[in-house]
Automatic annotation (TrEMBL):
Membrane-topology descriptor: Multi-pass membrane protein
Domain ABC transmembrane type-1: 53-233
UniProt keyword list: Cell membrane, Membrane, Transmembrane, Transmembrane helix, Transport
Keyword Nucleus found: no
Classification of source organism: Bacteria, Bacillati, Bacillota, Bacilli, Bacillales
PROSITE patterns: ABC_TM1 (PS50928)
Record carries keyword Cell membrane: yes
UniProt-recorded name of the protein: ABC transporter permease
Pfam family, one: BPD_transp_1
GO biological process: transmembrane transport
Similarity-based family: Belongs to the binding-protein-dependent transport system permease family.
Record field: transmembrane: 57-77, 89-113, 119-138, 171-193, 213-236
Length: 247
């Protein structure tokens, strides 16, 4: 716990500064105080937790699941085939050059206000770090160990599962930690542009009513979801990579 004391102290200081500035300018519809946001979050807890949070969580989890399957699958394919690498890698890089906020309305035109327009936005943002990190991990396996396995009569299957997969695991989890935080952003962007429920949708609706605290309340909840997902991935990483933790 001592490792987190500096971060906790900095957060407290920043919140106190925010509280003081918000109270001094007295423009709560633009810059609500942290205490005002906390009170609004408590006031709206049932609406946010039971009406809007499940919708956002569904988008995040479905988007992440698709990104993991798609990203790992493409990474493995590119690792096995130079043709696949030359075909997919430039497209994967190019997909990140298009501003998500610009292309998201197109998905809403295609899929309407259903959950899938938001899922596609989330996948577009999250599959990139998973794909690139996993691919780099597969490529990072030791050439010396590969040659040793070949001299011992190992085939491509044994080399892949006993050498490349263990080498790629730390890279995969690094990409996944980035992806889970981006998934929250992707879901919020999709809901902001067109939705009938969700934390992003609720925040946008409150903005039209000039209720600053109500705008910030779902954002705080979104941040909490991102932190929880990050911690879950860290725990899975710790359990999956016990050999690294013993060093």
């Amino acid at each position: 716990m001592k490792h987190y004391l500096p971060a906790a102290g900095l957060i407290v200081v920043l919140l106190l500064i925010w509280e003081a500035v918000a109270r001094s300018i007295n423009l709560l519809f633009i810059l609500p105080s942290p205490s005002g946001v906390a009170l609004k979050l408590w006031e709206l807890k049932e609406v946010l937790l039971f009406d809007h949070l499940p919708s956002t969580l569904a988008i995040i989890l479905i988007g992440l699941a698709i990104s993991i399957v798609l990203g790992v699958g493409i990474a493995v394919w590119m690792n096995m085939s130079k043709i696949a690498e030359r075909a997919f890698y430039p497209i994967i890089i190019s997909s990140q050059m298009i501003p998500t906020i610009a292309i998201a309305p197109i998905f809403i035109m295609w899929f309407g206000y259903s959950i899938w327009s938001k899922v596609v936005v989330t996948v577009l943002i999250t599959f990139f770090p998973i794909t690139v990190s996993t691919f780099d991990g597969l490529k990072s396996s030791s050439k010396e160990l590969r040659e040793l396995l070949l001299t011992m009569g190992a085939g491509k299957k044994e080399i892949f599962f006993k050498l490349q997969v263990p080498s790629a695991k730390p890279y995969f989890y690094s990409g996944l930690k980035v992806a889970v935080t981006l998934s929250v952003i992707g879901a919020a962007i999709g809901e902001w542009l067109g939705a009938q429920a969700g934390l992003g949708y609720f925040s946008r609706r409150m903005m039209t009513q000039f209720d600053g605290a109500a705008v910030f309340a779902p954002i705080v909840l979104l941040s909490t979801v991102g932190v929880v997902l990050f911690v879950v991935v860290k725990v899975l990483e710790h359990k999956s990579l016990k050999w690294r933790n013993m060093k």
